[in-house]
Design goal:
alpha+beta; Alpha-Beta Plaits; five-stranded antiparallel beta sheet; four-stranded antiparallel beta sheet; 4 helices; elongated
Length: about 325
């Protein structure tokens, strides 16, 4: 009996192993294709995403190439060299450089895709001239760049010795054929005066000079108002110029000539006649042989020939024209 029990247990264990082996084989047969399909799908998705990124990158590159073709010098080497050198020489002259020299180096082909044209500009210029040149250079959207700029101040002068290395590019298939392309600048360019204010006014190559100290000066006291000018008095310049006898209506009368010298007006007056000098009134009271009595503002005065109406003779009046 014990032996039979052991055999039964062994058979049970063997059966269990058999079931496990069959189950594992079945699991492998069922799951393995699914896992393989999933791995293939993941690989395809990864490759698809990579291709999409490569395609998008290729499109961006193509857009850049299309833009560069619009900015490129003409593809024909001789045309590109001639047109760009003429433009560069005119820019140098318009910028005001002295002793200017423009050199054209040997053109170089790159990977059968484009041609490089090196240029060198030398001259003597002020900082304002250099600023004008750089503004004109970057105002054009050509495929060109300044690869090196050397500035040497000239002793005892505000001028500079400058050397500018430039490289321009002509792409195969460029849109421009016979002339340089008409394209806007590749980035925003302000007006020339903006750069003059920020560059030229700084005096980059002069020794530093600290700003002048601000001196607080006391406010000067206000000036006293000048005294009012005395009001002009024409009486002072009105004189007895002559006494004559005239016949009026068959009657012999004495007549006095009173002359206002500021206006040149002469009054021919008889006794009891009134006249006005400026804003003041006067009346002839009596005319003698060599003097006359008048009333001025209610005050009687006796005036001799050559005297003014105040009755006082001014120095030198005898020499004046009467």
């Amino acid at each position: 009996m014990p032996q039979l029990r052991r055999e039964t247990v062994l058979l049970g264990i063997l059966g269990l192993f058999a079931v496990l082996a069959v189950g594992r084989a079945g699991w492998t047969l069922l799951v393995s294709p699914v896992l393989t399909a999933k791995a293939n799908a993941d690989k395809f998705a990864s490759e698809y995403s990579l291709k999409q990124r490569q395609l998008a990158n290729a499109r961006r590159i193509q857009q850049k190439i299309d833009a560069w073709k619009k900015q490129s010098l003409p593809a024909e080497e001789s045309v590109a060299r001639r047109e760009y050198q003429n433009w560069l020489l005119k820019l140098v002259q318009d910028s005001g450089l002295d002793e200017e020299q423009v050199y054209s180096g040997e053109a170089r082909r790159e990977k059968d895709l484009f041609t490089r044209f090196p240029y060198t500009v030398r001259g003597v210029a002020s900082m304002d001239d250099l600023t004008r040149f750089l503004h004109g250079f970057y105002s054009k959207g050509y495929l060109h760049e300044i690869t090196r700029l050397t500035i040497n101040p000239i002793k005892e002068s505000s001028d500079l010795e400058i050397t500018i290395a430039i490289e321009a590019i002509a792409l195969d298939g460029a849109e421009a054929v016979d002339t340089l392309p008409d394209v806007p600048p590749r980035f925003d360019i302000a007006e020339l005066d903006v750069y003059r204010d920020s560059i030229v006014e700084r005096r980059l190559f002069r020794p530093y000079q600290p700003p002048r100290p601000i001196v607080q000066r006391p406010e000067p006291p206000p000036r006293p108002e000048p005294p009012p000018k005395p009001e002009f008095d024409p009486v002072k310049y009105t004189f007895v110029d002559g006494i004559v006898e005239v016949i009026k209506n068959g009657e012999r009368l004495r007549e006095v000539w009173i002359r206002e010298r500021t206006s040149g007006e002469t009054y021919n007056l008889h006794e009891n006649e009134t006249f006005e000098i400026g804003k003041r009134s006067a009346r002839v009271l009596k005319i003698g042989l060599r003097d006359v009595e008048i009333e001025l503002d209610g005050e009687r005065r006796v005036l001799k020939l050559g005297q003014n109406l105040y009755g006082s003779r001014r120095p030198g009046e005898d020499e004046e024209d009467t």
